[in-house]
Amino acid sequence: MPPVQSSHTPKPLRHVIRISQLAYMACAFLLFAVSFPIFGWPAAFSWLLILPIIAVYFVARVRTTVSPDTLEVRSMFSSRTLSWDEVKGFRFPKRSWARAELTDGTEVTLPAVSFVRLPEIAIASGGRITDPYASAAAAYDAEEAERAEQSANDSASDPESESEPSKDQPESEQK
To answer: Would you say 124 and 15 are in contact if contact means Cβ atoms under 8 Å apart?
Structure first.
């Protein structure tokens, strides 16, 4: 049983991934665009005012919240909380938001989550998801350290090879 939360224990890390706040500017441009037909013929086009309102609602509501215990998905009309035990993995289709593959064989779309956000999800999930960028960087660093050690061992074991001219080089370069 986890300890009871108090003012002295840190709150679990929660990371909210949402659509960029710049999308509200696109909603304002949409309002501007629909205003011309509305002012031109209000009786026929006044229903167009609902489009910017729907766009603002979409930007404000849609999000994915990642915590060490759960994955909360909020879409336009529904919400779903997933335990990490239910999540089998992630899939990142081209030009679309990520999808969580569940153990029951279904998929859930993760709004506003792309492959670029994976390091943030890895930190917020408490280690349940691995960061591919960090593992690639660690492998590269290990490879570079191995190369440096190999070249240090090669130069320490063969000091005469540095003073002798190479047989592959022409004589003009040897002098």
So the answer is: yes
